[in-house]
Every structure is written in structure tokens, then in C-alpha cells.
Write a structure and sequence with these properties.
The complex is a heterodimer of chains A (902) and B (116). Chain A is α+β, with helices and mostly antiparallel strands. Chain A has five domains: 64 residues; 189 residues, no CATH class; 238 residues, no CATH class; 161 residues, no CATH class; 184 residues, no CATH class. Chain A has a six-stranded mixed β-barrel with strand order 5-6-12-8-10-9. Chain A has a six-stranded mixed β-barrel with strand order 19-20-25-22-24-23. In chain A, a hairpin with an 8-residue loop joins β19 and β20. The longest helix of chain A is centred in the middle third of the chain and has 40 residues. Chain B has one domain: Orthogonal Bundle (Arc Repressor Mutant, subunit A). Helix content of chain B is 57%, strand content 14%. Chain B is built from four helices and three strands; from the N terminus they run αβααββα. Chain B has a three-stranded antiparallel beta sheet. The N terminus of chain B is likely disordered. The chains are: A alpha+beta (902), B alpha+beta (116). At the A-B interface, α2, α3 and α4 of A face α2, α3 and β3 of B.
Chain lengths: 902, 116
């Protein structure tokens, strides 16, 4: 521990060292005086012999092991003193760096949560998930999937498997220590805990928790007994949900809840660390998958080998490699797929079952948000570069003021290496202060971003945004890199101070050779900032133009002033006969609300993320062939409410809802594609099965967008809604948001046990479809503006400094008759040239990189000249403003004062 | 008055000289420099710039120990003396040096004879 003691006694050691050398010095002086030299002369000679005394001290310190530590402590102290000496400068640099590191850390927190964080279960490396693939989509198959795996190439690969297949995999005891399966989450109507709410429930095998190695925080988790048919229905709560919905009360254990109207007993709460399996998916509670039918989930048929609905995750037996296990389960899978009771593929389809590491295989929201997040990461990286360039520019300007200090330190024997280290320590101090402040920015930034994500998610979103070691390392890494990045050039420059000319007090050197170089570097730093801002802003511009174009698409109905909310009475226990009455009742009551113009309901809202299509035959249209049409079940007044124009015939009325006549309405595109030039009114269409209803067309309406704003309008058939859940549409005369509480009240008055699912406006729903564009556009805009602001500050600083240096020259010019305008132009020109060079370089770089945005763009080329020109104009205009301030100051230079100050 | 060494001391030699001088009894830095100069018949002059870092290095390696004591002039000075470890080190290093110089001498002599 002696180095530590030395560090603590550093002061004493410094005093000792000083004393020791002084003793030597005095002895030598005394020796010289004894040989008859006068004291003054003796001292002078001794000083000459000694050379730089600080150099000797430095070498002495260095020959002890603590040198590096001691000097770092010294450097840091010295650095802090420097920072406090110029608080204004410190604040500007620290803020600049805080913006850069803060933005980076915020985005990285998201990247980490979505892409990098390892599964919060024990030993996640041994977990594998099964994923199948084939050249064509499988036949004779019912599949359900919940976005756990990336859905490649149109249903040619996924990770849902049948229950029998899961059992076969689970039985491979020599390969898997354990294998579990899950499906969901499904929306469950939860009552028995205050007002009825919707909960996200996942159906899991009994050994789900055991396989993952997740224990219970309270009570117990599920076990294999719970999976047996006929077992008592039990549920395990998610820790976060338990805290939110039950206030973390321990007496929930043993309580009975009603889920979709059947009773379940709460047996436990899962461990708090178990926050998710698939990134982004939020689960409130788990029930055994054998309870699927109890919960009204008809797709949870276990016996059917052609019903694929379970994601299978196994824990490899120790000593078994993923490849070994894969070979074995692949053989089982391929055999079943090709030679089962109802083969789903032929050998030519080349089916495979892969075992992927669960961390990679369970993608969840990664597949949707991965790309935009990478783009954002690139954008914040650019912002960080701009911040570094800006800080470097500021440091460089300041190093001019410190040139004398550097020269003095060199003269008294400090090594240039040592000076560089000192200067780097100072810049690292800046960057760590910046990073600390940036962490606060990152925290609120990430929270804001999460709110933006959540607001736009169809189902509750769960992101692990708590900072972990990865985020911390990232922030520290960024701080170190920025510290070195922006400190290196000024440090190098500073250590090259010219001792002789500085100490001679040569102020003329300020306009001399070296300063010219410094300005050069400063200029390039500004050019770089402008260029990088141009890249980000051009990206933002392209996306804004895309959004503009998307918004100007005519969806075929009026999206303004529509309020939407969904309900699912079946889950709350309504039977088929009660539902039409409920809907009619709700429709009447809602329509009576003040501010509501019209009300209707439909199976789905259009432009809301859903789409339902059906294979059908249309009378007279190549009778053998089926066609695919979009379908929507609607209530009365639907077309009036949505303001979809009626083209021909009539729309669906109240009487059509229960009529046996099976009236339907189709859109123009349907007629164009399938009616073959005949009068569509009276034509029949319907499903391919003889039992399917055959509808008769009674009217034709205008085309609308359905699934997305992009692409052409598809053929759509509208039939009366008689069963299932519904989304209500309210056309309002006032702001739809203001009506939300009144609408809630009406629904609660009708039935307190009927939870409302997602109340939103139609314009929000449309915005949601454009989420990725909006996200990237917004943040690119924000980051671009940030970059531009920093670049303007850099430009302003550079020119101000330059004006100060050229005060004398400007004074002489003015004295010789230069007009204010001449001086103004002189300085403005200098600045604007930099901006133009930056814009040109930035535009060239942007042409190279905006291609990465292509998949987000609509009707805008990545090199759209209009966007580029506009962005360039904005940059130049703001550059002019930044230049004009120092330029104005230059015009106010008093020639007399300027010349006298020499 | 010249301040540079008459000879360039080979790497590590200074440490050996210092330890040898210190082995004669507790002594401060200035006296070490003087003593080396005297003992080399004024041929070697040790610069402060190399002496003190060497002293501190040896102290750090625990080959020397130091105490503050009044000097002959009455002023406090830092006196160095050999530690047990230093003594052993000096012994082996001196023998190594002796062997090395003998061998180098032998080779130089042989070469010279061969050449002449």
C-alpha cells in the first residue's frame, strides 16, 4: 500500500524533495564561495549547472512508482483550477459535450433495450428457440403468431409449432434439460379487481418458469401439474403488473380473478428481474396453455398437429451443442411435415427446423424498430462529431490565450509529452463533466422517447430502459473518446508553443505564422460541423417531405374528427344473441352525446393497423377461380359516419343487420376488378365453402385506403356486423379528444364490466401507421437543429476570434477610408465561404448516405434536389446570421483605439 | 567549470557508483556527488539531473534508506544508507561488474594482439 501512502503524503514528499535539492544547491553555492567567488556570481553559476530544477524534480517523481498517479492527481487539480478560472468557457464546452453525449446515451439506451440486452433469465446462453422455414408457405395449416420472431419473406419462416411437436421436442431428454412453450399475450378481460380492465395474458406450458430458471417473488410459479387437462385454473402475476394493478399487496395470493369470465386463482408473483422474454412484449400474467379454451381462445387446439401456435424454447442439456440438438429435432420436424397425417409441405419445399440462440431468435419489436434505431444511432453519432468539432474549436481558440503559459512551462523544463498529457487531462475533465450532465439529459430524453413509443404502440410496450453496465460503459467510452477527440488537436498545438517568441512578449506573433495554422484548423472544424449538420438535416428534410406526401394522400374518407374505441363483449361473457342489441344500444346512446354528429361501428377500424381479407368467389367472375378481397363488417350508418361517398345503389341499414337477405356493399375497385363490366347491383359473392354465406351486392361506395396509406386501393366488401368485437366510430363536431370522458361514461353506464380497448382518434391511428417515419423525421430534425446550432456557435466563435485578431488591420483599413460596408463584407465573406464549402461537402456526403433512408421514403428520391436545395438555403441563411454578429462588431472598430493598443 | 560528465557512464553504472559511495556510511546527495568526483580523481562529475532521480529510484526499490539528519553545516540534509537488500545487491553487482570488465578487457586485448 506504499503507493497509496505516498499519494497521501505527497505534499510532504514534495516538500522533502524541494528541501533536498535546495540543500544541494546551497552547498554548491557555499563551495564556490569558499573558492573566492562572490555570492551573487556563485548563485548564478550554480543555477546554470543545475539547469531546470523542475525537470529534476519531475524525473525524481518519475523514478518512483507513483509518478503516473501523482501527476494525474496534479493534472486533475490543475485542470479543475483552469476550468474554474473561465467559467463561461467551461459552461459552453460542457453544455456542448452534454448535448452530444446525452443524445448518444439516450438513443443507445434504446438500442440496448431493444437489440442488445441479454434475456433476464438464468444462463440465457443455453436457451434456444425453434424456428421453421420452407421454400413455400405450409399448406393445411392454422397458424397464430404474436410477433416473437421476425416473419421472413411472407410466412415462409416463423417460430410457431403445434402442441404435439412441442411434446416431441420436450421428450428429447438427452438433448434438452427442459423445453417449454408459450403463446400470446392475448387480451384478457380481467374483473374481480375493481373496474374491469384488459390484461395481457400469456399461455404457457407448466415448465415455463422452470426452463427459464425464473423463481417466484411471492407464492409459487406454474409447474407441470398446472398444465394437466382438468387442473385448477391458476395464474401467476408479473412483478410490475402486481405493483401497478394490485399495489404490491402480498394478500393477492389465493385471490380469485375472473379472466374472460372464468375464475382463476392467483398463486404467485414472478421474480422482479424477469421483465421480458421477447423484446418489447409486455405480459401481465401467465396461465397454463391448457386453459386456452376456458379463456375462449379457440386457436389453442392442442390435439391438432396442423395447428401451429406455440413458440418452443429449450434449455440445452449440458455438453449438447446447438447443432447436435438441431440435427435431432430437425429430423423429427421434417418427418412430421412431410409424412404426417396431413403433410404441410412436399420434399421440394425443403422444410427445416432451426434452433437459434433465444437471444437472437426472439426478435419481437427488434424487427420493426431495429432499422430506425440504427439510423438514429448514426444521426446521434454525427451530432457527437459536431459537438466534438465545436469543443475542439473552442479549445483551440483558448489555447491561443494560453500560449504564454505553455511557453513558460516548457521553459522551466516541462516535457512536451507532459504538456500534452496535461491538456488531454483537461479535455477529459470537460468530457466527463459533459457526460455527467449528458446522463441527466439522456435520462429525460429516453423517458420522452419511451412515451412516444408507448403512445404509438398497438399493444402495451415494455422496454428495459434502466441503465445497466452496457449503457454505463457506453457513456464512459463516449466520454473518453470525445475527450481525446476534441482535445488532441489543441493539445498537440499547445505543446508546440514557441518558447523564445512567446517569452519575448511578442504580441505580433498573434497574427504570425502559427496563428494562421490555428485558424486553418479552426476553419476546417467549422466546415466539418456545417457539413455534418447538412447530412442530418437533409435526412430530416427527406422524411418531412415523405410525411407531407403521405398526409396529402386521399384516404377516401374524412380522417378528421373521428373518435375510435374498441370493445370485445364476447370476452366479458356476452353471447351471440346479446351482442347486436348491445351495439345498437351503445350506438343510440353515443349518437345522443352533444358534439357527436354520427356513430357507427365495424369489426376493425380502417387505417388502424388491422386488415382482414377473404378468399371468395364472385358470381359471374370466372366461376372456378377464387379472388381475394378485403373485408370489413360494419354497422348501420357506417358510410355516413366515415363520409365514404355512395356511388350506386344503397348502403346498409338497420334492417340489414338481422335480415336473412345477406345484403352487402362493395367498393368501386371491387366492381372494376370482379364485376367484369356488368351491373354490380344484385350480384352474389361469398366464401368458397358451401356453408359460407353468399352475399348480395346492394350498393357501391367509393374506394378507401385500408391497411396503409401507401399502395393502391384494394377491392373491399362491406357486410353487416353481427358478432365479435367491434370498434366504434364517432364523427364529432368538436375535438374528439374532449369527448373521451363522456364516451367512457356512456360505456360504463351500459356495462361496468366492459373494458374499453384503446380509445384514440382516427388521425392518431393514421399517425401510428407512419410511426417509423415520424420517429426518424422528428429525431433527425431535432438532431439536425442541434448540430446546426452548434455549428452556428462554432462559426460565431471563430469569426469573433478572427475579428479580435484583425482589430489592428481593420483599424488601418478604416483609417485609410474603408467604409463600414466594406468591413462588413470582408468578415461576412470570410464566414460565408466556410458555410458554403461545408454545405457543398455535406451535400456530397448526404447523397452518399441518404440511400439508407430509402425504405422509409415515399414518393421522394433519396437525392431529392428540392430538399437538398432547401436545406442548403436554410443552412446558409442561419450561417449568415451567425456571421453577421461578429461582422457588425468589426464595423464598430474605432481606428484610433485599434492602432493605439499596439 | 564543466557540467557534463567526462565519460558517458554506461547504463546502470551510476547506480553502482552511488551504492558504493553510500556503503561507506550515511551520506547526503551533495556529498555523494563530491565523493564520486574525488574518488574518480575529478574525472567523473555527476549531474544533479541524473543523481537525484537515481537516488529516488534506488530508494523506491528499497536498496537505499533515507533519514533526515543535521549535516556538518548544521542544516538538515537527507542522508542515504544501504539497506540489507542494497548491500547484497551491491555485492552481486560489483562482482558482475568485475567479471564483465575482465572479460571485456580480455577480448579487447585479444583483438588488439590479433590485429597488430
Amino acid at each position: 500500500m506504499s503507493w497509496l501512502r505516498r499519494l497521501i503524503y505527497r505534499k510532504k514528499m514534495e516538500i522533502d524533495l524541494d528541501k533536498e535539492l535546495r540543500f544541494h544547491f546551497e552547498s554548491q553555492v557555499a563551495y564556490k564561495m569558499r573558492s573566492g567567488i562572490l555570492e551573487g556570481e556563485a548563485r548564478r553559476l550554480t543555477r546554470l549547472e543545475f539547469g531546470g530544477i523542475d525537470r529534476i524534480k519531475e524525473d525524481c517523481r518519475e523514478s518512483r512508482g507513483t509518478q503516473w498517479l501523482e501527476s494525474i492527481v496534479l493534472d486533475i487539480r490543475y485542470g479543475i483550477r483552469q476550468l474554474r478560472k473561465s467559467p463561461g468557457f467551461t459552461v459552453v464546452v460542457v453544455l456542448t459535450l452534454a448535448l452530444g453525449t446525452g443524445a448518444n446515451t439516450a438513443i443507445f439506451t434504446f438500442v440496448n433495450a431493444v437489440m442488445l440486452r441479454s434475456l433476464p433469465v438464468s444462463d440465457p446462453q443455453r436457451l434456444v428457440v425453434a424456428e421453421w422455414s420452407g421454400r413455400n408457405r405450409p399448406h393445411h395449416l392454422g397458424t397464430s403468431s404474436f410477433g416473437d420472431c421476425q416473419d421472413y419473406q411472407g410466412m415462409r419462416s416463423d417460430c410457431s409449432l403445434s402442441y404435439p411437436m412441442f411434446q416431441q421436442i420436450r421428450d428429447q431428454k438427452n438433448l434438452f434439460a427442459n423445453a417449454m412453450a408459450f403463446a400470446g399475450p392475448v387480451q384478457l378481460d380481467l374483473s374481480g379487481n375493481g373496474a374491469a380492465t384488459m390484461a395481457q395474458g400469456e399461455l404457457v406450458s407448466g415448465n415455463y418458469f422452470e426452463t427459464l430458471g425464473v423463481i417466484a417473488a411471492l407464492g409459487r410459479t406454474l409447474d407441470s401439474e398446472d398444465e394437466k387437462p382438468g387442473a385448477e385454473p391458476v395464474a401467476v402475476l408479473d412483478y410490475g403488473y402486481w405493483k401497478r394493478a394490485f399495489g404490491g399487496s402480498p394478500i393477492v395470493i389465493g385471490r380469485t380473478l375472473r379472466l374472460n369470465n372464468s375464475a382463476f386463482t392467483i398463486v404467485g408473483v414472478a421474480d422482479s428481474r424477469f421483465t421480458r422474454l421477447t423484446p418489447g412484449k409486455s405480459v401481465d400474467l401467465w396461465v397454463a396453455l391448457t386453459q386456452g379454451t376456458e379463456l375462449g381462445q379457440v386457436w389453442t387446439q392442442r390435439a391438432d398437429a396442423n395447428n401451429w401456435w406455440l413458440v418452443v424454447v429449450g434449455r440445452l442439456q449440458s455438453g449438447v451443442s446447438r447443432e447436435q440438438a438441431q440435427a435431432a429435432v430437425n429430423a423429427l420436424f421434417v418427418n412430421d411435415a412431410l409424412h404426417g397425417a396431413k403433410p404441410v409441405w412436399t420434399a421440394a419445399d425443403d422444410p427445416h427446423l432451426w434452433l437459434l440462440p433465444a437471444q437472437q431468435g426472439l426478435t419481437g419489436i427488434r424487427s420493426e424498430y431495429g432499422k430506425p434505431l440504427m439510423l438514429l444511432m448514426a444521426a446521434v453519432g454525427i451530432v457527437l462529431l459536431i459537438a466534438c468539432a465545436n469543443a475542439a474549436g473552442l479549445m483551440l481558440a483558448r489555447s491561443a490565450a494560453r500560449e504564454r503559459e505553455m511557453a513558460v512551462r516548457l521553459a522551466v523544463g516541462a516535457g512536451r509529452q507532459r504538456l500534452i498529457r496535461q491538456l488531454l487531462t483537461e479535455s477529459l475533465l470537460f468530457s466527463f463533466l459533459g457526460a455527467a450532465l449528458g446522463a441527466l439529459l439522456a435520462y429525460s430524453g429516453a423517458a420522452g422517447l419511451e412515451a412516444f413509443f408507448s403512445k404509438n404502440a398497438y399493444s402495451p410496450l415494455r422496454l428495459d430502459l434502466e441503465p445497466n453496465a452496457t449503457v454505463l460503459l457506453f457513456a464512459i467510452g463516449v466520454a473518453v473518446l470525445t475527450g481525446i477527440g476534441f482535445g488532441l488537436a489543441p493539445a498537440h498545438r499547445g505543446a508546440r508553443a514557441n518558447v523564445a517568441s512567446e517569452l519575448k512578449g511578442n504580441t505580433a506573433s498573434a497574427t504570425g505564422h502559427r496563428t494562421g495554422h490555428r485558424l486553418d484548423l479552426g476553419k476546417w472544424l467549422v466546415v466539418m460541423q456545417v457539413a455534418l449538420s447538412m447530412v442530418v438535416l437533409a435526412g430530416a428534410g427527406l422524411l418531412l417531405r415523405t410525411l407531407n406526401k403521405l398526409h396529402s394522400i386521399d384516404p377516401g374518407f374524412d380522417t378528421r374528427n373521428i373518435l375510435l374505441f374498441s370493445i370485445n363483449p364476447e370476452l366479458a361473457g356476452y353471447n351471440k344473441k346479446q351482442i347486436p342489441d348491445l351495439y345498437a344500444n351503445l350506438q343510440t346512446r353515443l349518437a345522443a352525446l352533444p358534439g357527436v354528429v354520427n356513430t357507427s361501428y365495424s369489426s376493425d377500424a380502417i387505417l388502424d393497423g388491422g386488415l382482414s381479407t377473404e378468399d371468395m368467389r364472385v358470381e359471374g367472375h370466372a366461376d372456378k377461380n377464387t379472388v381475394e378481397s378485403q373485408m370489413l363488417s360494419v354497422g348501420p350508418d357506417y358510410f355516413d359516419t366515415m363520409k365514404i361517398p355512395v356511388v350506386d345503389g344503397r348502403v346498409l341499414a338497420e334492417s340489414d343487420m338481422s335480415s336473412t337477405q345477406l345484403a352487402a356493399v362493395v367498393n368501386r375497385e371491387f366492381v372494376r376488378k370482379f364485376a367484369g363490366g356488368r351491373n354490380p347491383i344484385g350480384l352474389h359473392f361469398g366464401g368458397t365453402d358451401p356453408k359460407d354465406p353468399q352475399w348480395q351486392i346492394v350498393g357501391v361506395v367509393g374506394d378507401t385506403k385500408y391497411e396503409s396509406l401507401r399502395g393502391a386501393n384494394g377491392p373491399t366488401a362491406y357486410v353487416p356486423l353481427t358478432a365479435g368485437g367491434a370498434t366504434f366510430e364517432l364523427r364529432t363536431a368538436v375535438s374528439p379528444v374532449g369527448l373521451m370522458p363522456a364516451v367512457r361514461n356512456v360505456v360504463h353506464e351500459v356495462d361496468n364490466n366492459l373494458p374499453i380497448i384503446r380509445m384514440r382518434t382516427q388521425s392518431d391511428a393514421v399517425d401510428r401507421l407512419l410511426f417509423n417515419q415520424r420517429l426518424v423525421a422528428r429525431l433527425f430534425g431535432l438532431f439536425g437543429a442541434l448540430g446546426l446550432m452548434l455549428a452556428s456557435i462554432g462559426l460565431y466563435g471563430l469569426l469573433s476570434y478572427n475579428v479580435t485578431l484583425r482589430t489592428r488591420e481593420i483599424g488601418i483599413r478604416t483609417a485609410l477610408g474603408a467604409q463600414r460596408r466594406d468591413v462588413l463584407v470582408l468578415i461576412l465573406r470570410q464566414g460565408i465561404v466556410l458555410v458554403i464549402v461545408g454545405v457543398a461537402l455535406g451535400a456530397a456526403a448526404a447523397i452518399g448516405v441518404t440511400r439508407l433512408l430509402e425504405s422509409l421514403l415515399y414518393d421522394v428520391r433519396p437525392t431529392d434536389p428540392f430538399t437538398f436545395a432547401l436545406t442548403a438555403c436554410i443552412l446558409i441563411a442561419i450561417g449568415l446570421v451567425a456571421c453577421s454578429l461578429p461582422a457588425r462588431r468589426a464595423t464598430r472598430v474605432d481606428p484610433m483605439a485599434a492602432l493605439r493598443c499596439e | 567549470m564543466k557540467t557534463e560528465d567526462r565519460f558517458d557512464l554506461p547504463q546502470g553504472t551510476l547506480d553502482l557508483l552511488i551504492m558504493r559511495v553510500v556503503s561507506l556510511g550515511p551520506i547526503h546527495g551533495y556529498a555523494i556527488a563530491q565523493r564520486i568526483q574525488q574518488m574518480s580523481r575529478e574525472a567523473l562529475q555527476v549531474q544533479q539531473g541524473s543523481l537525484y532521480p537515481a537516488l529516488h529510484r534506488l530508494e523506491y526499490k528499497k536498496l537505499l534508506a533515507a533519514t533526515w539528519k543535521p549535516s556538518e553545516t548544521g542544516r538538515e540534509a537527507k542522508f542515504y544508507e544501504l539497506t540489507a537488500k542494497g548491500r547484497a545487491h551491491l555485492k552481486t553487482e560489483s562482482e558482475n561488474w568485475k567479471r564483465l570488465t575482465e572479460l571485456v578487457g580480455l577480448i579487447l586485448k585479444g583483438t588488439l594482439e590479433g590485429v597488430s
